[in-house]
Amino acid sequence: MESKISRVHWVTKVRDTPSTSSAGRAVIVADVCRFCGTFANKVLPGIGRVCRGTECQRHAKNICRKMLLCGHTCGGMRDETNCPPCLYGCRRSTVSMSVMYGGQQRAGSLAAAIEEEMCAICHTDKLSAAPVIQLDCNHMYHYHCCEMLLRKRWSGPRISFRFLMCPLCETRQISHKLLSELLTPLKELYDDVRRKAMTRLQYENMQTCGAVKTPGTPFYQKPADFAMQRYAYYVCFKCNKAYFGGEARCAEQAVLPDRYNPADLVCGGCSDVVKAQVPHFKSEEKH
Asked: Which DSSP helix (H) or strand (E) runs through 180?
């Protein structure tokens, strides 16, 4: 056996005693945590060695207990029906042992190991450092990073849905059944803003403007996308519904404060007509 053992096998192939995996590969015992790589003297059944760190213990509760066909432990979330592909690029291990008993193989496989790749959301930890999920677009991220991204939502007062897009492909929205509880209200808000923006575009008779009808333009035959880019909507502090706050270019030309008070964002239906709050920003003055 080679004297130098890569961390890939140290972290993922752990047993109380040396043995052989179902794929016929030797299983190596190592005293390192499978998540952070520091010393760990405790072995958890179906998980491997995990240190006493708070984050690693939390990951251990959420990590999948299944063994992939290649002999590596699954890096996905616990109780998922379909495991994500092996993080170490094993071509024949895109499914777990459970697939042999009625499950379905998830589309997509990895040609090379991605264990060393950073999560494209946090950009601080490797994918193997925490339980991952594979989105419907086949890109993988830490589950807790996806959860944090959806909870944080957009930055600033104006509603923006760019955070809902996959950070890597940027063409499809984040979608996974484990995130449905967080995604459902966000998608409802998205549909509401899209409908209101399109209604206003039609009211202003802009649905046939050059930006929508000219071939080659970013919003060609995409009136709803153009409307959402043209108009600014905000979430009312009182009723928690989206309301129209003017054209987006007004907000772009303003100097936005580093910190805004969400209580100042109130729709006309929740305030006095005279005192209806639309975000007011100081215009940039040139001296």
From this structure: helix 180-203
Q: Cα(100)–Cα(152) distance, rounded to whole angstroms?
A: 39
If you ran DSSP here, which 8-state letter would residue 84 be given? P
Q: Which amino acid is at 215?
A: P
CA dist., res. 146 & res. 140, Å (int) = 10
CA distance 216 to 204: 23
DSSP string across 248-278: HHHHHHB---SS--GGG---GGGS-STT---
Taking the C-alpha atoms of residue 144 and residue 120, their distance in angstroms, rounded to an integer, is 13
What is the pLDDT tens value at each position of the chain, 287 positions in all?
A: 333 333 433 333 333 333 344 444 444 446 888 898 888 777 777 677 888 889 999 999 999 988 888 888 899 999 888 888 888 777 554 443 333 223 334 434 443 445 568 899 999 999 989 999 999 998 999 999 999 999 999 988 999 999 999 999 888 999 999 999 999 999 999 999 999 999 999 999 998 899 999 999 999 999 999 999 999 999 999 999 999 999 988 766 665 556 778 888 999 889 765 454 455 544 333 44
